[in-house]
Amino acid sequence: MKKNVFVIIVLCCVSLIAKADVAKYCMSYADYVAGNWKSVSELTEGRTKQVCQLKSDDHCVYFKTGDKESDQILKKQAFAVMYGKQLYVNCRNLRCDDVCLETSKYVQAVPYGDHKLCVMAYKTNTLLALADIGCLAASIFVNDTWVSLGLVSGSIGAGIANDCLSDFVCYLIDSNANAKGKTPITRINDQFMENLLSDDAPLLDRYKAIKSKHNRQSAANVLPILMEKGLVEGN
Predict the structure, then answer these.
(1) Which residues contact 99 (CB under 8 A, 6 or more apart)?
(2) Where do the DSSP E strands lie in 91-223?
(3) Which one of 39, 77, 157, 227 has the minimum C-beta count within 10 Å?
(4) What is the C-alpha to C-alpha distance for residues 194 and 27, in angstroms, rounded to an integer?
(5) Which candidate, 16, 38, 44, 42, places its Cα nearest to that of 25?
(6) Which residues of the chain fall below pLDDT 70?
(7) Which residues of 130-165 are buried (b: 16+ CB within 10 A; e: fewer)?
């Protein structure tokens, strides 16, 4: 029996606090692949008694430990934070075709295939790209008891149970940072999906059946297909 997939997103406006032993970070994609995680409590080195807090800010998140030095490392240097069972990737140094994303904070990610990461975020910062060539350019979060950009499997009905994921697109991380410290990411767009589904005509037809390019390439449409391909797992 064909498995129907639902994608649910819950937007919250309060801070969630994780116990120190379930908030951990890694400094690079290579560390993520190798499983080299360190506890955030070790990062603060006893300089604060406050546990790591996850805060929301305009469809993205950031982390507060109560220690300024640690907060700066998490903000500017860390690659990813595992908060409970949820994985968040720092967008500050991500680049798609050398263009940054529209946020420099953290967004949620899920494992993709073998060691890769699928990141859900707004599109690349096209306004900033225009500014760079001289033109004038005018949260999501959860703990392990809630569902975030949560990928949830269902057995009844078929469709997408959210509006917010329609505003997000997916990016793939599959390599380390370059010499400039920027991590290249790949937009999961029409070309990517056509290559991925070249051997699966029914799924490709389902993907292409959505006429609006915005809706077709949205995370709301892409994620269920990636799950059906076995590349992304539901929570």
Answers:
(1) 124, 125, 126, 128, 129
(2) 94-96, 99-100, 106-112, 116-121, 151-154, 169-173, 183-184, 186-187
(3) 157
(4) 33
(5) 38
(6) 1-21, 58, 124-164, 234-235
(7) eeeeeeeeebbbbbeeeebbbbeeeeeeeebebebb
Q: The tokens of 105 are what?
A: 């904070």
Tokens of 124: 């690349």
| pLDDT at position 51 | 85
Q: Is the pTM of this model over 0.90?
A: no
Long-range CB contacts (< 8 A, 24+ apart) of 199-208? 200/229, 203/228, 203/229
The structure tokens listed for 213 are: 């390019």
CA–CA dist 30, 156 (Å, integer) = 39
pLDDT of residue 82: 95
Q: Which two tokens stand for residue 83?
A: 């908060």
Task: Starting at the earlier edge strand, list the strands of the sheet with 94-96.
Answer: 99-100, 94-96, 183-184
| CA proximity to 203, closest of 186, 223, 185 | 223
